[in-house]
Amino acid sequence: DKEVRAIFLRLFAQLFQGYRSCLQLIRIHAEPVIHFHKAAFLGQRGLIENDFLTKVLNGMAFAGFVSERGPPFRTCDLFDELVAFEVERIKAEEGNPPKIIKHVRELAEQLFKNENPNPHIAFQKVPRPTEGSHLRVHILPFPRINEGRVQELLQEGLARSQGAPPATRGDKKCVVPAGPPVGMFI
Fold first, then answer.
1. Terminal C-alpha separation, the chain
2. How far, in Å, CA of 10 to CA of 108, rounded?
3. Residues 89-118: what's their mean pLDDT?
C-alpha cells in the first residue's frame, strides 16, 4: 500500500516540479486568491502541445491542489520536500530502475513512519472465542448502568472542558520551499 502511494507521490512530484514558481498571489479581496499561471508552466517546460498535462492542469483536482498547496506559509510535508529538494536525485535515477525502486521504498518507509509515529505500540488482537463458548452458562450478564452516575460523570467532564484552554493542532507552520524554477526541467 505505501509503495504504491510512494510511486504516485514521486510521479506527481515529477509532473508538477517547479509549479511553485508559477503561482501568483492576488490580493484584491480581503482574503488573497492564489492563481496558477498554466501557460507559463507549460511554456517553460516546453509542453504547450502536451494534451495530457494540459487536461490535468485544467481539471478540478488540480484547482483544489493549487488552493490547498499554494499558500506560501503552511505546514510542509513529504511532497513539498520532494518537489523542492529531490529534483537532482529524480533526474539522476531516470534510467536506473534499481535506484528508482530504492527511492520508492525509502518514500514508502517515510509514509509509514508518518502514519505510525509510535511503532513500539503493538495492537493486541482479540482472540477468537473457543469452540462451544456460546454454550457456557457461567458468564455473568452485563451489569445495569447507573443513570445517575453517568450524568455525574458527564457534568464533571463538561465542567473540566469549559475551564480548559481550547485544543490546538500540533502542526508547525513554515515557509514552503519554492524549489528550483520550472525552466530547469526542460
1. 32
2. 10
3. 85
